[in-house]
Design brief:
The protein has 202 residues and is of the alpha+beta class. The protein is 21% helix and 34% strand.
């Protein structure tokens, strides 16, 4: 059963022209912007993190990124379960900008998971922060960094807060051409992650 007496809520997402800082790039200015989405999930932070990191199940629930490849991971590498993200792992998202769950051969995003932090909170729960660094473009052209923050309130409801900040000369083009679409897809990602995680606990 899902934990706690709280209730999950619908996701909300925004494009922020005052960008949020990220661990590697800090505070960005100029054409920088952030896409952010937040949702409440009636599950433990650990359960939410497990859904996020287990990419083998993305085809089941994730219509924005229905497929992930690991180009530098040898088939014999057993340091992590197959298809599971972890620090220092390079991976490629197959992105469906229409949100229909169809892996695209054209839209692929190379990312590096840089960190996974775990914190023991005063209420006895755990919180997590996972960071994915964009590696698709040279840093001088486009910098992107995605932060996943997972925490739990006193009612046992987890907040999943994800934001990605874009900066560099190409950021203005990203915002103009796909900014609104990214807001929709981040919201969809959060809602599908919520629904999948809660369904696992029933």
């Amino acid at each position: 059963m899902a934990q706690g007496r709280g209730e999950s809520t619908g996701a909300h997402a925004d494009l922020l022209r005052s960008p949020l800082p990220t661990p590697k790039w800090g505070s960005q200015a100029g054409s920088a912007f952030t896409v952010r989405a937040v949702v409440s999930i009636n599950a433990t932070p650990t359960a939410v993190l497990d859904s996020l990191l287990d990419t083998t199940q993305y085809p089941v629930w994730n219509k924005f990124v229905p497929k992930v490849d690991f180009p530098d991971l040898a088939p014999s590498d057993t340091s992590l379960p197959k298809g599971r993200l972890g620090p220092d792992i390079l991976f490629i998202e197959h992105v469906d900008m229409f949100g229909q769950g169809k892996p695209s051969g054209l839209v692929k995003m190379k990312l590096l998971m840089t960190t996974l932090k775990e914190t023991n909170e005063h209420n006895g729960s755990k919180s997590f922060e996972a960071v994915w660094l964009g590696k698709a473009y040279p840093d001088w052209a486009l910098r992107s960094e995605r932060v996943h923050a997972i925490s739990c309130d006193k009612n046992g409801v987890t907040t999943y807060d994800v934001w990605e900040t874009f900066s560099g000369p190409l950021a203005v083009l990203v915002r103009l051409f796909v900014g609104t679409t990214l807001v929709k897809r981040f919201k969809q990602w959060n809602e599908e992650l919520r629904d999948y995680t809660e369904a696992k606990l029933r």
